[in-house]
User: Fold this.
Amino acid sequence: MPEHNHIIVAMFASGAGSNAEAIIEYSRRKDSVYKVEVILTNKEQAGIYSVANRLNIPIVHITDPQDASNILEMLQKKQVQVIALAGYMRLLPAEVVRAFDGRIINIHPSLLPDYGGQGMYGNNVHMAVFNDKKPYTGITIHLVDEQYDSGKMLCQSRISIIDCNSVENISEKVRKVEHEVYPLMLNQLCKTIYAQQ
Ligand code: GAR
Assistant:
């Protein structure tokens, strides 16, 4: 592992990119111990492109999300030490998960194990919560293993949605909490890894 005064992070993101933006903004603060060197995406038209361009972070398109050696090669080229998933809707190949064991973090927009598993992502989650008329929802930040949403949990935040009357309201409220908590948890993980270097 290379020795820098920060931990090198790659983000995998294929959505609007709002969490990637929050994480990159945080990385520019004094108390951040990580630096985002690259964003990988498997979507051509994702909002993540405008975030990457605006914040001046290189973005790479993954043509085959199953091609572990191509992904590993890109990560090695940038000397990546930690992977942060934010709205990346594909399972990472097992070889990548094994190579970064304990160093891949993900955010999920519900209180796992509720509303988790294959097909449960983004607005699908909020829609299910809304249809179930839940008074609360939440977020989960967890390490990534070879299955959907099943790695070791790092933290959860519960969010009251009594005042939300649409899926969009829920999504907006959840995203706001995600943007506050995710950079802090990533920074915490990177501090632990930094201390082990
Ligand atoms: C976030 O709400 C994140 O929790 C969710 O996708 C959204 C991405 O938004 N992730 C999942 O559902 C993973 N299963 P963003 O592109 O604006 O960061």
User: Anything to note?
Assistant: The chain has a mean pLDDT of 95. Residues 167-196 form the longest helix (30 residues). Residues 7-110+139-157+183-196 form a domain with the Rossmann fold fold (CATH 3.40.50.170).
